[in-house]
Amino acid sequence: MIKNYFKIAWRNLVKNRMHSFINIAGLSVGMAVAILIGLWIWDELSFDKYHQNYGRIVSASSNVAIRGNFGQTNYVATKSAIIGMTKVWAMELGRYNITVNCIAPGFITTAMTDAMPEEVKRQSIPHIPLGKWGMPDDIANGYLYLASDEASFVSGICLTIDGGAAR
Hints:
By secondary structure, the protein is of the alpha/beta class. The chain has helices at residues 2-15, 31-45, 64-67, 73-93, 111-114, 118-124, 136-146; strands at residues 20-23, 55-60, 98-105, 158-161. It has a single domain, classed as NAD(P)-binding Rossmann-like Domain (Rossmann fold).
């Protein structure tokens, strides 16, 4: 079912000559599904009929892929795989003028993180050099930049947006 959803979305991207694809898989979707979706996108990109000689792919990782996080081996491994996938795709798709990058957010104030215990939130602040959590717009601005023409020579990077926590 998920694969069919992404097939339809991908065909619409190509049909409408859209140039950017944001690859985001949340916690509820599951790690294996995120990787499988990414592999399916690569499979679809492999066919010359889809190449428009321009494109942007931006995937979601996490700053824990860079800094680690106690008790989250599976999550850290999956988000690290996104970074590796990004670097490989950047090498393989660059010849088609497609840039491939990812974003590694840190703690961001959202409805999901609002449910975290206050003590856990307080304990995280000293580990963030900027002394605060980010806002959704902080992450959105990163996606907008990497999907823009201004980022035409930026490919294969993981942009960490976490107030300096993953240093």
